[in-house]
């Protein structure tokens, strides 16, 4: 895609430049990424970008039109957190890069989330690609770095003193996304705090900040709430379900409300048909569908080839969907003449007083395996792993 840039990139590529790319990311983040970095960006034409934006605008319109009580049904009773918000602060949409029946390259919706992704890392990743391959600056994201920073700062820190704002995670040093936490700290001047280190006094939360007990007023939440029950003997500093005096960014309920739960309700030419498992019609065939749990993360629990025996054995069918299969098109040529597939995640933010979210960045994933998630890639392949998309003509 975009033959001019693909040809130039492949001609300029070398193992030394790939090592340089990773070294710069490590230097900027203060640690190496704990996930595989693709050797290559994803090149896509502006025509494809327009399709992405058209589909995303339609999805946003449809979600905005849904009654609040419909969205709230997605939140499990044991996961409901008080003081919900009118809309989420983060909104991400994943599209597979596919080929239509008439031969055109088109996006197909894979999933969507109201949960923060690697915003700080992806901006750094894009800039680093441009440092190592200067010609990429011609087609990089047009949003200036300062504007990007201001958007994130207003969203996460707001008018608060940064020392009263934390990035909350469970055992952050063990997370594969730790480099994004470090880059966020540098960008916004906030601290990353483990859930086990938070102290609660009455309705207020505190953390140790350079030996001083400091009140937490805003939480940039990176904890996947429903996963806490899976951690044995976890000693959390507070219970999410308590009525506490903090501002959530974003509120934990939105993790459930904007999720695969919505897929059966959405309609668009770039949205594959989906059904809740308990509503799967008899006229459809399982062989054309992928089985997905509603609230899994990073591809866990996905079954690419469900059978009736498998679906019949599932007791909580309302917590699963069947999504029509799409075929990722291998169109991204590597230096050996082999081709990778990819998907792209659009990274939106949604300011509290705004009617619609704003697109800040994108995140790409490249693969030569059956599933696109970075964890499912072949270990000895190239042109696989985390990437960034550049659009041009």
Describe this structure in words.
- The chain is built from 9 helices and 18 strands.
- With 393 residues, the chain is α+β, with helices and mostly antiparallel strands.
- The protein folds into 2 domains: 3-272 and 326-392, no CATH class; 273-325, no CATH class.
- Strands 2, 3, 14, 15, 16 and 17 form a 6-stranded antiparallel β-sheet that branches. A 4-stranded parallel β-sheet has the order 5-4-9-10, covered by helices on one side.
- α2 (15-29) packs across α5 (119-132) and α5 (119-132) crosses α7 (178-188).
- The radius of gyration is 21 Å and the shape is globular.
- The model has no long low-confidence stretch (mean pLDDT 93).
Please give the oligomerization state of what you see. Answer: single chain
Poorly predicted residue ranges: none
What would you call the shape? globular
Number of DSSP helical runs = 9
Mean pLDDT over the residues: 93
Name the helicity range.
10-25%
Strand portion: 15-25%
User: Would you report the number of β strands?
Assistant: 18
Q: What sequence of helices (H) and strands (E) makes up the elements?
A: HHEHHEEHHEHEEEEEEHEEHEEEEEE
- Rg calc: 21 Å
């Amino acid at each position: 895609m975009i033959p001019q840039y693909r040809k130039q990139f492949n001609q300029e590529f070398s193992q030394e430049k790939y090592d340089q790319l990773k070294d710069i990311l490590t230097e900027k983040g203060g640690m190496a990424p704990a996930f595989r970095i693709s050797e290559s960006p994803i090149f896509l034409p502006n025509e494809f970008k327009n399709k992405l934006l058209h589909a995303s605008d339609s999805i946003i319109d449809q979600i905005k039109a849904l009654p609040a009580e419909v969205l709230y049904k997605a939140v499990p009773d044991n996961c409901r957190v008080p003081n919900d918000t009118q809309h989420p602060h983060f909104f991400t949409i994943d599209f597979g890069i596919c080929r239509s029946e008439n031969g055109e390259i088109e996006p197909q919706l894979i999933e969507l989330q109201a949960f923060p992704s690697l915003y700080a890392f992806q901006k750094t990743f894009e800039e680093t690609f441009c440092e190592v391959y200067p010609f990429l600056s011609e087609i990089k994201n047009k949003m200036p770095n300062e504007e990007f920073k201001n958007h994130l700062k207003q969203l996460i820190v707001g008018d608060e003193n940064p020392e009263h704002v934390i990035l909350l995670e469970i055992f952050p040093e063990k997370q594969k996304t730790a480099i994004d936490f470090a880059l966020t700290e540098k960008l916004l001047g906030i601290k990353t705090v483990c859930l086990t280190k938070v102290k609660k006094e009455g309705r207020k939360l505190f953390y140790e900040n350079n030996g001083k007990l400091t009140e937490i007023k805003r939480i940039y939440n990176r904890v996947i709430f429903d996963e806490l029950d899976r951690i044995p003997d976890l000693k959390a500093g507070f219970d999410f379900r308590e009525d506490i005096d903090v501002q959530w960014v974003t509120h934990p309920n939105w993790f459930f409300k904007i999720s695969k739960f919505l897929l059966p309700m959405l309609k668009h030419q770039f949205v594959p048909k989906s059904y809740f498992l308990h509503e799967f019609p008899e006229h459809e065939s399982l062989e054309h569908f992928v089985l997905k749990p509603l609230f899994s993360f990073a591809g866990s629990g996905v079954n690419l080839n469900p059978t009736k025996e498998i679906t019949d054995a599932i007791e909580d069918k309302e917590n699963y969907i069947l999504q029509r299969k799409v075929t990722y098109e291998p169109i991204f040529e590597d230096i050996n003449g082999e081709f990778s597939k990819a998907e792209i995640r659009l990274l939106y933010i949604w300011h509290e007083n705004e009617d619609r979210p704003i697109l800040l960045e994108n995140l790409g994933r490249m693969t030569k395996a059956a599933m696109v998630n970075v964890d499912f890639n072949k270990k000895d392949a190239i042109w696989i792993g985390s990437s960034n998309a550049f659009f041009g003509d």
